[in-house]
């Protein structure tokens, strides 16, 4: 069984920077943290579930974060009418089922969504750009979206810490 080499480079956010640069750096730091938690693991390890009844796995988290990136940046901020990556019916839970997924499938989708997110953020006039979150039925600023994504990654990276430790004993970030 082939495993992936540990190759993720993670750059710490600056201690002093403007608001946009700081948000961008923290978001990229958390994206890299999730990738690091998956470094060196086989597809089978990445699909390993936590504990019953939870079906949570590292690969499921990667797939979920692809959906999150898409939902917030492409759909909410950019107003794109695109379905979710893994569910045309809009079921966010589908992404968590990584039982038949592979590293390459999940990571390609996640990295593609991150590229879209970075482009949308970079092209936005300011953090005050307003989009619409259809699930909430509310307007949202790009600033709020970036903060929400940082929160979402931080929360799930905590899950990833426990999942990784359960797989091979690796702790820390």
Strand content: under 5%
SSE-based structural type: mainly alpha
Structural Rg: 16 Å
Strand order of the largest sheet: 1-2
How many distinct helices?
A: 5
Helix proportion of residues, in percent? 40-55%
Average pLDDT score: 92
Walk me through this protein's architecture:
- With 173 residues, this protein is mainly α.
- The longest helix has 27 residues, at 142-168.
- It is globular, with a radius of gyration of 16 Å.
- 54% of the residues lie in helices and 5% in strands.
- The model has no long low-confidence stretch (mean pLDDT 92).
- A two-stranded antiparallel ribbon has the order 1-2.
- β1 and β2 (138-141) form a beta hairpin.
- It has 5 helices and 2 strands; from the N terminus they run ααααββα.
């Amino acid at each position: 069984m082939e495993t992936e080499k540990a190759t993720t480079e993670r750059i710490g956010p600056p201690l002093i920077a403007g608001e946009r640069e700081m948000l961008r750096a923290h978001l990229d730091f958390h994206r890299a943290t999730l990738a690091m938690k998956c470094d060196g693991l086989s597809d089978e390890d990445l699909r390993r579930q936590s504990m019953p009844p939870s079906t949570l796995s590292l690969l499921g988290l990667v797939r979920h974060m692809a959906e999150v990136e898409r939902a917030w940046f492409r759909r909410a901020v950019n107003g794109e009418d695109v379905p979710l990556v893994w569910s045309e019916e809009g079921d966010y839970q589908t992404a968590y089922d990584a039982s038949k997924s592979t590293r390459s499938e999940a990571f390609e989708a996640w990295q593609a969504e991150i590229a879209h997110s970075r482009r949308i953020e970079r092209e936005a006039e300011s953090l005050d750009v307003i989009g619409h979150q259809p699930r909430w039925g509310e307007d949202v600023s790009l600033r709020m979206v970036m903060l929400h994504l940082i929160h979402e990654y931080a929360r799930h990276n905590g899950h990833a810490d426990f999942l990784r430790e359960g797989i091979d004993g690796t702790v820390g970030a």
